[in-house]
């Protein structure tokens, strides 16, 4: 019999940190978060300034290159991304393999992974040119693939990208235009979409980004790593929370039912949680939630839904929770997902698309983090340890002796 308690001594000391609450997995220059103060900076720039003054492709450039582009650099970058938005008709057939009612997240996970089968000639992760072209392809093709996943799941024909439109406007058109019908993207919607993309672009070592880095640490190709990140994002504790928050607001339905749900959220025997509340890092208002709340009001005004009962429930729920000692003591504030579901619904997206939109926007963060990891000379394969708590060594018994 092996004394299990001696196993850790045999292999040296290591820390048991479930959920990695206090483990730094890497050094990074991309994103800074001060969760106590509610600060989020990308390459040093505050998220509210980027959301207000920049646009998504400029933020992509910033995240990937470390500096804001000059006018010439930005123009060239936008031109490059625009030129990669198409996907090959052969790749279109890939979508037909899915059931008609497949969840768009399932389609996107499969399609992004399948890009590695399509672009297998440029997958050398040690070649900077291959890394660059993969980054361009991912950022450019993700909206096309996401829009196709939506169109496929609702049984409508695919809409090709329009390269004279901006990144967000083109995406909205690919999602909502119908052949032979005139479809004009409203400026306020394009701006809101672009801002939502900026708000989701990166968030340092969250679960999906850590997944991308861990997958990439083995030398896996970038498309495979992104597929791993998308799969992780799908969960309701992460990217699926905006869908869950909207479902919760719909379930609450009216302002008078809020106290019942607040009580349930505080009851430890009830697994229910207020979706869109709380964050591993933010112990203050999520700075993205502030911008998202403003964007939500703008979109609802634009569609004439400022009296939407869901918004009324959300505003009142936030007010009550922020005054409740349970939420105050545990520092549970609304996160970005609290208002994003209402906003996306008002823009016309079905709930199944919410996490897809998150994945679309987060792609640049995943690529930037993956690239930073590959270029780090100290990078090693990620390999967490464990504390073994299973059975001690024992002899195999034939089936007739068990
Ligand atoms: N409602 C009620 N209580 C909550 C909530 C909530 N939304 N969030 C946390 N708590 C409570 C927990 O019950 C726990 O209480 P205890 O100390 O009495 O046991 C305490 O606050 C700490 O919670 P943990 O789960 O330990 O915190 P953790 O950092 O592991 O989880 C998480 C963070 C997953 C975001 C959590 O707050 C949650 O489940 N929120 C709802 C889902 C959500 O909105 N997710 C989106 C995250 S942001 C993003 O991915 C973009």
Automatic annotation (TrEMBL):
It catalyses: oxaloacetate + acetyl-CoA + H2O = citrate + CoA + H(+). Belongs to the citrate synthase family. The gene is gltA. Coiled coil: none annotated. The keyword Coiled coil does not apply. Pathway: Carbohydrate metabolism; tricarboxylic acid cycle; isocitrate from oxaloacetate: step 1/2. It comes from Hirschia litorea. The keyword Transferase applies. This is Citrate synthase.
């Amino acid at each position: 019999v092996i004394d299990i308690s001696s196993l850790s001594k045999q292999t040296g000391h290591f820390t048991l940190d479930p959920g990695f609450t206090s483990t730094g997995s890497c050094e990074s220059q991309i994103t800074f978060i001060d969760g106590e103060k509610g600060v989020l900076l990308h390459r040093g720039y505050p998220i509210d300034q980027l959301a207000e003054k920049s646009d998504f492709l400029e933020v992509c450039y910033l995240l990937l290159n470390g500096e804001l582009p000059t006018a010439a650099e930005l123009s060239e970058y936008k031109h490059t991304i625009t030129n990669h938005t198409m996907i090959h008709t052969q790749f279109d057939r890939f979508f037909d393999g899915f059931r008609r009612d497949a969840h768009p997240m399932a389609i996107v996970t499969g399609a992004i992974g399948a890009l590695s089968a399509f672009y297998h000639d440029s997958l050398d992760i040690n070649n900077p040119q291959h890394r660059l072209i993969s980054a361009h392809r991912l950022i450019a093709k993700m909206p096309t693939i996401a829009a196709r996943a939506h169109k496929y799941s609702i049984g409508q024909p695919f809409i090709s990208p329009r390269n004279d439109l901006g990144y967000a406007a083109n995406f909205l058109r690919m999602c909502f235009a119908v052949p032979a019908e005139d479809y004009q993207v409203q400026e306020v919607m394009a701006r809101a979409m672009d801002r939502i993309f900026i708000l989701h672009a990166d968030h340092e070592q969250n679960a999906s980004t850590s997944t991308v880095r861990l997958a990439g640490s083995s030398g896996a190709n970038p498309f495979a790593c992104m597929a791993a990140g998308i799969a992780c994002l799908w969960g309701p504790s992460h990217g699926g929370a905006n869908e869950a928050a909207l479902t919760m607001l719909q379930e609450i339905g009216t302002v008078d039912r809020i106290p019942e749900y607040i009580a349930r959220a505080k009851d430890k025997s009830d697994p229910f949680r207020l979706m869109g509340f709380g964050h591993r890092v933010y112990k203050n208002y999520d700075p993205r939630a502030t911008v998202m709340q403003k964007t939500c009001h703008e979109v609802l005004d634009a569609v004439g839904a400022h009296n939407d009962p869901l918004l009324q429930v959300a505003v009142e729920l936030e007010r009550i929770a922020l005054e409740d000692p349970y939420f105050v003591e545990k520092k549970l504030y609304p996160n970005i997902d609290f208002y994003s579901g209402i906003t996306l619904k008002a823009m016309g997206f079905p709930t199944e698309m919410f996490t897809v939109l998150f994945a679309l926007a987060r792609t640049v963060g995943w690529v930037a983090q993956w690239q930073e990891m590959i270029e780090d000379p100290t990078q090693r394969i990620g390999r967490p340890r464990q504390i073994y708590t299973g059975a001690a060594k024992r002899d195999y018994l034939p089936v007739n002796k068990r």
